[in-house]
């Protein structure tokens, strides 16, 4: 059993690694992860040449660092942590620029060594050297040889932070004088986007003095513990009394989508979703069955059906300012809004047409893209823990979905679900945090005792690393108004941190981590401004650095 070809090709079509990852062993498409954008590396294979004309190793040359398996117990020994590195722009005295790529196989992200990204732009401007250090439990960087609950004892945000610090302090970089570049001897810059952007903030917040400057793009610093934007524990506002798993309600994920998608499509999706919710609430099994068949989705569980409808909205995460029109999200809106070559006005066509059009789009096109030839329960059902296709407890390496879900289930929460009653919603309210947190118990048997749902320690992670209230200095936070993860960043409506000159909060009209890619600056003036402003802040902080060792 491997990832379905159709799903793989959809991901390719979207040219974004994080579009709709599958459960790896099974066919079901599930939640998109907060990852940096995949960028092909067109420089790959070309000779890499240093400033003085010396031929350097290719970007794809992998190196390995002996990393501690358990930073709380070094006697357990080390594992090989993979990294990529170049010094094409380096001049003595320049900074060492470390990217934590987050929850991906780093071998596909060598473009982040180059000047196609903000990392290489900074290196080129400041005479720096770039590194991409794979995250533990992703790609080839595995402390143990499986992804079992026992191995995941050392799969925590705290260990990942300690990896970055220990690497910076101990690596001997494969470059001239590479053993004389530890923090104190050379200035280090930490960069990350999305989850890894949060890791960048957390690392600098909890380990002052190691990194001289940081760049955190679309950084999902705030683990979601609140029920609505205005019920956040440390804001002094009222916190609802809720069971722990309900605190993982991240309906805000869909707010930038609802507000920025074509107005007609947003209106029609809201109308269909309100109708779906009213039919399911009616309890009329005949009507519910007919509704599911309109989409060709006769799923046994209403919440699996409601969750499947989210998949069209999740395709938004693959968008960038320079995305062409042939993207899954736009195909979806065109299917709803263009009738005989004519587009609906901004109010849409209304429920009747939109319902039939959305159903027909699933039935004629989208189902096959997502599920290939798999049956509907196999592909989209989440209740059959014994299905041979489910892959729930498959612990083989690597499996980015599984490794990321562990962090979601134990620490972050981030359950992307319907908005609370009274709020407009493009996602059914039948999708609740329980839908995802129940699956945590299937993925990781025994990890949550006898509980029916995982209870991620989101409160703990926010307390430990200050979430969006961090006061850490010399870090740029770059966010995008169209980023679906925005409501977990410092740019969220719920955040009261205004930023400062020592912690600039830069906002563009970008999508997820758009500002990390130089080509998106060419597609959006506000992204270019963010990139230029960020480079000048970082240049200023680096120029003020003096050696301490
Ligand atoms: C050129 O750079 C390489 C790598 O930084 C270094 O080993 C070599 O000594 C340099 N050569 C000159 C002539 O500067
Ligand atoms: C980016 O770096 C490459 C070498 O890797 C160089 O050929 C190119 O000119 C650089 N681009 C810019 C815009 O400086
Ligand atoms: C980069 O290196 C060049 C050549 O040594 C030097 O002239 C320039 O000032 C350096 N730039 C920075 C920002 O240090
Ligand atoms: C869905 O597609 C199948 C096969 O093309 C067709 O038989 C069925 O009638 C369609 N259902 C709906 C509701 O359009
Ligand atoms: C209506 O939908 C079409 C198709 O997605 C889109 O191109 C157009 O911009 C939308 N128009 C309005 C006013 O929302
Ligand atoms: C939650 O995280 C906090 C802060 O890291 C920690 O002190 C606490 O023990 C954790 N709680 C659980 C139940 O793991």
TrEMBL record:
InterPro entries in the cross-refs: AB_hydrolase_fold (IPR029058), Peptidase_S28 (IPR008758)
SUPFAM superfamilies noted in UniProt: alpha/beta-Hydrolases
Keyword entries, A-Z: Glycoprotein, Hydrolase, Protease, Signal
GO molecular function: dipeptidyl-peptidase activity; serine-type exopeptidase activity
Signal peptide (from-to): 1-19
Domain of life of the native organism: Eukaryota
GO BP terms, alphabetized: proteolysis
PANTHER family referenced in this protein's UniProt entry, alphabetically: PROTEASE S28 PRO-X CARBOXYPEPTIDASE-RELATED (PTHR11010), SERINE PEPTIDASE (PTHR11010:SF23)
Family that this chain belongs to: Belongs to the peptidase S28 family.
Name of the protein in question: Transporter
């Amino acid at each position: 059993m491997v990832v379905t070809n159709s799903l793989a090709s959809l991901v390719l079509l979207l040219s974004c690694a994080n579009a709709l990852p599958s459960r790896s062993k099974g066919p079901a498409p599930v939640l998109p992860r907060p990852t940096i954008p995949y960028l092909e590396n067109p420089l790959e294979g070309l000779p890499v040449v240093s400033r003085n004309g010396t031929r350097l190793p290719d970007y794809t040359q992998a190196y390995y660092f002996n990393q501690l398996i358990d930073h709380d117990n070094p006697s357990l020994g080390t594992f090989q942590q993979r990294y990529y590195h170049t010094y094409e722009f380096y001049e003595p005295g320049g900074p060492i620029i470390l990217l934590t790529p987050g929850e991906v196989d780093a071998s596909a992200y060598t473009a982040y060594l180059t000047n196609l990204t903000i990392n290489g732009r900074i290196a080129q401007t400041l005479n720096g050297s770039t590194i991409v250090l794979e995250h533990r439990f992703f790609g080839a960087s595995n402390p143990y040889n499986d992804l079992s609950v026992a191995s995941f004892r050392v799969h925590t945000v705290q260990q990942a932070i300690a990896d970055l610090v220990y690497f910076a302090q101990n690596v001997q970089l494969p470059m001239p004088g590479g053993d004389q570049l530890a923090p104190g001897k050379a200035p280090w810059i930490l960069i990350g986007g999305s989850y890894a952007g949060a890791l960048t903030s957390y690392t600098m917040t909890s380990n002052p003095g190691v990194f001289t400057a940081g760049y955190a793009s679309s950084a999902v610093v705030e683990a979601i513990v609140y029920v609505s934007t205005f019920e956040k524990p440390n804001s002094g506002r009222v916190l609802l009394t809720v069971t722990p798993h309900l605190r993982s309600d991240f309906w805000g994920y869909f707010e930038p989508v609802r507000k920025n998608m074509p107005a007609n499509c947003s209106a029609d999706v809201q109308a269909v979703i309100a109708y779906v919710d009213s039919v399911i609430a009616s309890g009329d099994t005949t009507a519910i069955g007919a509704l599911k068949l309109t989409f060709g989705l006769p799923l046994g569980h209403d919440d699996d059906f409601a969750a499947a409808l989210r998949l069209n909205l999740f395709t938004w995460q693959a968008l960038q300012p320079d995305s062409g029109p042939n993207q899954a999200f736009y195909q979806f809106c065109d299917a709803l809004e263009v009738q005989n070559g004519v587009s609906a006005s901004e109010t849409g066509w209304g429920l009747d047409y939109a319902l039939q059009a959305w159903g027909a789009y699933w039935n004629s096109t989208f189902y096959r893209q997502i599920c290939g030839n798999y049956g509907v329960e196999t592909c989209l059902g989440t209740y059959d823990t014994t299905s041979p296709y489910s892959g729930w407890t498959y612990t083989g390496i690597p499996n980015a979905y599984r490794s990321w879900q562990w962090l979601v289930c134990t620490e972050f929460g981030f359950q992307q679900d319907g908005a609370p009653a009274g709020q407009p919603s493009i996602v059914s309210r039948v999708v609740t945090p329980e839908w995802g947190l129940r699956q945590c118990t299937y993925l990781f048997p025994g990890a949550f005792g006898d509980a029916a749902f995982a209870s991620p320690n989101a409160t703990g992670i926010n307390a430990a690393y200050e979430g969006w209230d961090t006061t850490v200095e010399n870090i740029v936070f770059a966010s995008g108004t169209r980023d679906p993860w925005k409501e977990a960043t410092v740019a969220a409506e719920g955040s009261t941190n205004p930023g400062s000159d020592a912690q600039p909060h830069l906002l563009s009209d970008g999508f997820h981590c758009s500002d990390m890619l130089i080509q998106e600056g060419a597609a959006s003036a506000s992204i270019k401004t963010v990139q230029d402003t960020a480079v000048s802040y970082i240049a200023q902080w680096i120029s003020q650095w003096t050696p301490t060792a």
